[in-house]
Structure prediction request, 642 residues.
Amino acid sequence: MALGEFALIDRYFRACGARRADVVAGVGDDAALLTVPEATELVAATDTLVAGVHFPHGSPPASIGHRALAVNLSDLAAMGARPAWALLALTMPQAQESWLAEFAAGFGELARAHEVQLVGGDTTRGPLCITVQLLGFVPRGTALKRSGGHPGDSLFVSGTPGDAAAGLALQEARMSAPSALHAYLRGRFEMPSPRVALGERLREFASACIDVSDGLLADAAKLAHASGTGVEIHYQALPVSAALEQAAGAERAREFALTGGDDYELCFAVAEKNLAAFMQELPSQRWDYHRIGVLRKAPGAAVLRDGSVMQFSHCGYQHFG
Amino acid sequence: MALGEFALIDRYFRACGARRADVVAGVGDDAALLTVPEATELVAATDTLVAGVHFPHGSPPASIGHRALAVNLSDLAAMGARPAWALLALTMPQAQESWLAEFAAGFGELARAHEVQLVGGDTTRGPLCITVQLLGFVPRGTALKRSGGHPGDSLFVSGTPGDAAAGLALQEARMSAPSALHAYLRGRFEMPSPRVALGERLREFASACIDVSDGLLADAAKLAHASGTGVEIHYQALPVSAALEQAAGAERAREFALTGGDDYELCFAVAEKNLAAFMQELPSQRWDYHRIGVLRKAPGAAVLRDGSVMQFSHCGYQHFG
Prediction:
């Protein structure tokens, strides 16, 4: 069986994702050989998904493959980087052809959409666990960081956070909704769209950026902390999808938006002096973002509703919680 | 407990390994920012260790940390690359301070020895599983590959393969030996020394190279296959350590040398025209290698003993076996 499994794995991963001219040697030797463009910095991220922790056991393999790459694309998007090459470390209890085919299809489709080539990896037997390393680049000195914000900068978020957490709650039957809403929200968990193009454009305008993976409030607080500021989020300004509001109600929808995880949206700060150019060059209707608050001198993260500060018992998903 | 665990992990991994001037941003943002030297190719490898598969449950944490990096250093050595930056994806059932301290010490000591800086990673809860991604570089166009060998090239191996497999057999009580031999062989499994310096020097002389992780015979066969050749290994020429020969006997020692795994030595081919310069510039006494055979036209891998071909029922460890 072992040799058959090797052949299977080889079949699905040897030519996965885009074909890039800057790959000197990809899958098949001890390591990949890659040509990094001149005058850039290399950007490297890694994220792991564990079955039963980051996705329910029995999740669709295409979703697992998609998300394993998406979470890393989102990290690169938060740096304003252009993704290029991925390595995949796949640990699984057994090599089942239909599972591998769907996993590779989910991974490969997202990879091709972002011109990412799978250039190496490792397949091992063990409890289902997927680690992707993603490499990309930014023009030297232009990467977005969490730490560049200043008091007075406006805070924005892309998309409609909270959908993914509601989708997961539906999938795990902790919540219920009519089937159309269910399908939409579950799709937002299973097939997130990392904001790679937005991240690249934000290099021109944003002072700081982070991707929203652990919950908007928690991640906005991290951006503020890294910038040496605090942050105020305006409850009424939170963008909430119609589907989430219908499924969860107005109050709970905003709780999902603030504290749910797995959104893979971008939360970013823009200084006053760049605001007009930003909103003109990247119109919000096309780029799908909303202003949700402001960085402030006083440390900490506060959500303001009708002028008073809201309390939250938890602020976002703790990977190690 | 979750926040305490985050702080613990941060304490042990924020400053792990060497400090490198080419790291623009390391641990702490969404991704690392790195400066790749001009006129080089980036070299990227990833390898996973799963508890109970790649090391026994209950192995010393320092050994696990050391090996998680060593297996990747060995991949870069096989390309003739100089290692630079590592990312660590650590999945573990719980964050226990003494375990983390020892793991980070084992990883960090080997990283410093090879001037590698830990620049990012991800920590998740789940069954113990460690994936390291290692990045490095080679002068453009000079990387060693598996595929460069030709019939007539001499085949070499560094060190004394088989020790590690015997060490694992001792650790798992599938074999016994006096305590001094036991300690030596077990150390060869638990703390392998990847041949990074040798790999870099081999760029000048070798036509093909692979690291010996799945067993010498299996890996030599892979090198030959990639080069479009076959390979003959001479049984009498196999370098076997005195410890292994004493512990296992002459016959079984050579079986370990041919089919054991986890050596992390280099197996490489040198063309006739480079042989004299190679042996003069890199004397075998100092660089610790032996000539064990030759690449040949006829495909396949054969072990010759007293002029006849030996049969092997298995040829090396199958990661997915």
User: Anything to note?
Assistant: Chain B has two domains: 5-139, 146-310. The CA atoms of residues 168 and 189 of chain B lie 6 Å apart. Confidence is low (pLDDT under 50) at residues 317-321 of chain B. The two ends of chain B are 38 Å apart (CA to CA).
